[in-house]
Amino acid sequence: QVQLVESGGGLVQAGGSLRLSCAASGRTFSNYAMGWFRQAPGKEREFVVAISWSGGSTLYADFVKGRFTISRDNPKNTGYLQMKSLKPEDTAVYYCALRLQFQGRSLWVLPNEYEHWGQGTQVTVSS
Predict the structure, then answer these.
(1) Taking the CB of the first residue and of the last residue of the chain, which one, N or C, has fewer CB atoms within 10 A?
(2) Rounded distance, CA 10 to CA 109, Å?
(3) Smallest Cα–Cα separation from 81: which of 117, 50, 46, 118?
């Protein structure tokens, strides 16, 4: 079983930055594609960004392009989400998720396409 633990969330002013981490254990991290999703109060969970098992391909939601950067360090079993130029509308609980992927560059954007989830980390952006 895979365990995921997100960290790095917090309160930041608009225009500020945060770096989220997703630490994986229990399975080989490099056998999984990773996605970041977020969920604001009263809203559905939405796709933010994904990265393939090797890091060779990425896919960003339009609303974060140019502001967020996903990366992964497979030897450290950790993924990252660097967030810059944060806006109040970025306020949400951010979740990392993994989907089994041994090869290829496919990426997935629907929550039900991911098999393992972390508990989430709160990001609050004040205006």
Answers:
(1) N
(2) 25
(3) 50
Query: CA 124 → CA 16, 32, 44, 92, 95, distances in Å?
Result: 11, 28, 17, 7, 14
DSSP 8-state secondary structure symbol assigned to residue 118? -
The C-alpha atoms of residue 94 and residue 36 are separated, in whole angstroms, by 7
E strand residue ranges, 1-127:
3-7, 10-13, 18-25, 32-39, 46-51, 58-60, 68-73, 78-83, 92-100, 116-117, 121-126
Q: What is the token pair recorded at 6?
A: 């997100």
* Chain segment 25-75, per-residue pLDDT in tens: 998 999 999 999 999 999 999 999 999 999 999 999 999 999 999 999 999
